Amino acid sequence: MSRKKSASDLSPAELEKQIQSGKVEPLYLFIGEDSFLKDGALKKLVNTVDEGFRDFNVEEFSLQETPVAKILDAARQLPMLARHRLLIISDVDKLKDETGTDALIEYLRHPVDTTCMVFVTNTLDGRRRYASTLQKTATVISFDHLDDKGAEAWANRYLKSQGVTIDPQACGILIGLTGGNLAHLKNALEKLITYVGKAKRITPEDVKALVPRTRETNSFDLGDAMLANDRKKAIRLLHRMIDDGGEPVAIVGLLAWSYRTALVAKELIQRDAPMSEVAREARVAPYKKHFFESVNRLTIEKILFAVKRLAQVDLAIKTSQGTPALQLEHLICELTSPTSFK
After folding, report:
1. What's the whole-number average pLDDT of the chain?
2. Which is more confident, 307 or 285?
3. What are the distances in angstroms from CA 270 to CA 1, 140, 300?
4. What is the rounded distance in angstroms from the CA atom of residue 66 to the CA atom of residue 62?
5. Which of 58, 83, 158, 331 has the smallest CB count inside 10 Å?
6. pLDDT value at residue 97
C-alpha cells in the first residue's frame, strides 16, 4: 500500500555516488524526517556549484511564501559561469498559490536541463495534482530515520573514516543512548574520538562515562513494533518510555490509537479502496511502508481483540489492579504472541 518505488528512486548513498560521478538530475524530491541526512545531501549538491559563483547560481525558495511564477523564472535562468543552477524548494506540501499549480506541473513535466531543483519535505500529500506529478517526474530520495542496525552501521563507517574503532558492545550501548538521531550520534562520536585520543578504540566504559541519554523515543515506534509483532523491540521501547517518565495510561492510549488506525486501514483495504483514500482516512503517510505491511498481515479479528484488551488494561491501571508496568509488559507479550487472538 506504499508508494511504488520507481526505477529512478535512489537511496542517500546512491545519490552520493551519483553526485561524485558528476551527474546531477534536473529534479529531486527529498522526503523524510531525518534532517541530518537531508542537510548532508543538500550540502553535497551545493558543492557541485563552483564556490566563487554560488551567490549567482544557488537560491532557496518556499512554496508557501513565494509565488510559483517567481520560482519558475529563477529555474529558467541560465547558470552564470557554471554547469547548472541549484534551487532548493522548501514547504513543498504547503503550496498556497493555487493559480500557479498548472504552471508548476508543466515545468515538472519539461524541466530545464541546466537547473537542478530540489524539493524538500517531511511528507507529501499525493492527492494534490502537483505533488502527484512531482513524485512521478523527480528522482525521489527517502531520508527516514535509521533503525538501530542502520545507525550502528553508520557509526562504524564514520569512525572508520576517522581512523577509530569501537567495541561491538560499546556501539550497542551508544545506539541505545542516542538512537537513529544522526545529529546526536555524530556529536557523541566526535566527543568520543577526542576522548580516546591515541588509543583509537572506544570501549563500553568510554561510552558510559561520556555519553548522556539523548535518545527521544518516538512514541509511535511502540505502536509500529506492536503491529509488526516485534515483541523484543516493543518490550525494549516500553521500558525506555517508562524510564523516560512515560505515563502508563498515556502509553495504553497510544497503543489503542495505533490499533484503531490499523482497523480503519484494514477495513478500507478489504474494500479495495485506493491507497490515497486509505492513507487519508487512516491519517498515515503513504510512504509508511512498514505500517501497511503490518496491516496486511493482521486480521480484523486480531485488531478487534487488541482494542478490547487495551480497554481492559486501561481500566485495570486506572483502578490500581496490579503494577502498571507489569500490566503493559504482559499485554505486549499477549498481543505479540503467535497464538493470541485464538
Report:
1. 86
2. 307
3. 12, 29, 10
4. 6
5. 83
6. 65
Nearest CA to 325 out of 240, 267, 268 is that of 240
Tracing cell 537511496 back to the chain, one arrives at 11
Nearest partner of 317 among 304, 328, 303, 333, judged by Cα:
328
Distances (CA, A) of 213 to 45, 184, 293, 305: 33, 10, 32, 36
pLDDT for position 74: 96
Contact 327, 248 (CB under 8 A): yes
pLDDT band with cut points at 50, 70 and 90 for residue 210: confident
User: Does residue 56 have a pLDDT over 90?
Assistant: yes
Q: Where are the alpha helices (H) located in 162-274, listed in sequence order?
A: 168-178, 182-196, 204-210, 219-227, 231-243, 248-270
Domain 219-335 -> CATH class: mainly alpha
Superfamily of domain 12-142: P-loop containing nucleotide triphosphate hydrolases (3.40.50.300)
pTM: 0.59
